[in-house]
Amino acid sequence: MSIVRLGLIGAGGMARHHIANILKQTDTTQITAICEPNGDNYEKAAEMFEKAGQAVPPCEGDFDTFMKKYGDQVDAAFIVTPHNQHFPQAKALLEAGKDVLVEKPMVMNTAEAEALIKIRDKSGRLLAVAFNGSMSPSIRTAYKMLHDGTMGKILTVQASVWQTWEEATKGLWRQIPEISGGGYMFDTGAHLLNTVADLVGEPFKEVSAFIDNRSTLVDILTVAIAKTQSGAMVSINGCGASPITASDIKIYCENGMVVTGVWGETLQVQMKGEKAPTDVELPPFLGVWQTFVRVRNGEVENPSPAENGLRMIQLWDAMKASAKQGGNVVEIK
Asked: DSSP characters for 132-180?
């Protein structure tokens, strides 16, 4: 396969996390150009290329200018920018004939999600959401076990993610609703909502939720209970005020239990009669871009399409609606 010429949109902290993995994939990818308005972010990214012994890509701070200068030099783009920029940037890239991987949450709201799906369909290009869980070997393996009869019927799900998010994002754009679209559950919690929805493999029917902003402008603490269409019961706990960062998903089934995390960081299984969970052997994983390239090359089906992004936002909308009603059950249509 030819090397993918990647345009990286954003070079902040999360983008640099992805750069570290992409620099290990020179057999498939070359970062051709970067769009980043913050000079300090670009300098930190440039240092990563230099340490890896690779040429530093040029940078353009303005997105429209970037498209004019480097649009013809990239085959695909990875959008890692503040949430309110995802929709206009993804739209422009798809319409320019580029394949697009966009960080979560895909867009700001349901209307943008539905519009972007239409744009994708019209363009005929690949669009995927960078949900670490859905794109990981662990969640794909867990999904297969949960739906090929191995584990039997899913009975209940217990899912949590906790992080020092409130303190770490204080004064930053992630706590400004007009830019972020939400707080902890719309940011880190997006992984929780998506991975759970992915694993259960069916739509949710009802949800009841409570949300606490802890005197900020955005959600920090969220708890919810939900029921899927087939009757599986799910508990969700998002704590953005924890002194530590971790996640845990336990799926209790007729034949045993599956244990994983919202980012697909682990996978264990305990079958009926076994005394403890055991690790499942998995192939090496170099992050979401690795999976995106495999999808682009036709090696695997897209495990994280734009529909995942829409589904996650719809579930979050239902949780917010319930919380506004004091936790009343909200039906999801």
From this structure: HHHHSHHHHHHHHHHHSSSS-SEEEEEEEEE-SHHHHTTTSGGG-HHHH
